[in-house]
Structure formats: C-alpha cells, structure tokens
Amino acid sequence: MPLLAVMLVVASCAIHAFWNFLVKRAENKLAFTVLFLAATPLLFLPMIVPLSPKLSLPTVGWICIVATGIVYAAYFIALAQAYLVSDLSFAYPLSRGLGPALTVVWGVVLLGERPSALGFLGIALVLVGVFALQWQPNLASRIGRFFVPSALPAWLVGLMYSVYSVIDKIAVGHLGVHPAVYIYAAYTVCAALVLPIALIRCSKETLLKEWRRNWSSCIATSILNIAAYLLVLWAMSLPNTPASYIVPLRTLSVLFGVLFGTEVLGESGRWRKLGAATLLMIGVSLIAFA
Known about the structure:
mainly alpha, 80% helix
C-alpha cells in the first residue's frame, strides 16, 4: 500500500475524530450540529457546480439519496445526544466500532453476503470491545446488564452508521452515483430535516447564541466532516491501494477519539478505553480482511 495512501487515511482518521471533538466541546450539542450541517451545502456549493451534469440520476438513485439523508439526520441527532450524556472517549469508539460490525449483518441479510469464520471472529471482538467500553466498577455486580443507559444514543449512532453504509454501497457501488454528488445531496436533505427538528427542541435564540459563540468551529466542522471523507476517496483512487487495507486502517480513528477525550478533555478510564478501542480496531480489521 503506497505511503501516500496510508498518510491520507491516517489524516482522515485524525480529522474525523477532531470534528467529533468539536461537537463534544460545544455548549449546545444539537444547536452546534444543526449549524454545521446547515453550513455544509453552502460551503461546498462551489465543488458541486462543476458536477451538475451528474445530477441527472435514475429515480432509484434519488431514492437512495433521500433515504441516506433521513438516516444521516437520525445519525447526527443521536450523535449530539450521545455527546450530551457520554464522554467522547466512550461514545466515539463505541459507535465507530459497532457500525462496521452491524454492516456485516445487513450485508448478510439484505445483500446476500457470506462472511468467513474470520469475519465472525472480528464481530465477536467488536462486541467484547463494546462490553469493555461499557464496563464500570459499580456495575460489576450486574454482569448480565450489557447496556448502560448513557450508551443508548451511541448505539443508535452505530446503528445509523451501519444502515447508511449499506445504502452508500448500493448507490455508489451498484448504481454508479458520483460520490461527491451523492454525499452533497444527502447532506442537503439531512440539513433540511434536522433544522426544523432543532427549532422545535432549541429556540432561535439558542441557535444564534451557539453561532456567536462557536461560528468558527461550526464552519471548521462542516469542512472537516467532508474533508475526512474526500481524503479516503483520494486514497482509494491511488493505484495499488486495496480497499481491504483502507477499511481496517480507518479504525485508527477510535484511538484518536479516545486520546482526544482522555488527554484533551480529561475524561477518565484512559487505559480501559484504549484497550477497548484496540479490541475494536482488531475486530473491524478482521471483518475487513475477511
């Protein structure tokens, strides 16, 4: 695998974890989320204009875009809630590790894929990592309880991650929708859905207050969110760069997420979370190679 591809994917991992750190650091997570989502279509409009001829899509392509936009909306609302009730170093690796494992399930159920024994071992390791992340000393007497209440939004984030990954594969992989057009249109649908929901749960004054406080972070998050995805696409476009290497390498983001949480935000449980993140990385790597 070319060194440039490795550097691009590692940079993407760091960028992805960093924009999640910015969401976690926001005063009002939901207001911040809707603001950066609303800014995304405006900021990336110059990128999409040259691709406007590719906006002529079959009906099923537009159905995928709308479906992805709906799933994105649920994803980002759940993400804001996850960072409201959980540490970054807990919610981020939990959702990023769970998503690929659930994607395998959907691949089997919906796309007829058949993972190998190595793939199922990877799923098992992901589940062990998830359990390790959620383990707390005060829950030691309740071993049968796999969930902690604060984990539920992060689980929903992971679930939505897996669902839109399958739709992505259908739209970009099977229908041939241009990736930049696809993600731009899906984010536009997402922003249109999240904005009225945010206005119901947050007042206009709350949104304006969050914008005045964190406008630069909102714009940065909009740019970094798309940039992380485009860096991966760039890496995939390079010769001699198998996707089976890129997918496991992308799980480095869980380590970045844990480090941002424990080292920058001062969240507790550093070594337990690093150990759990390592299990998640190994599990997702096995799933990818399998």
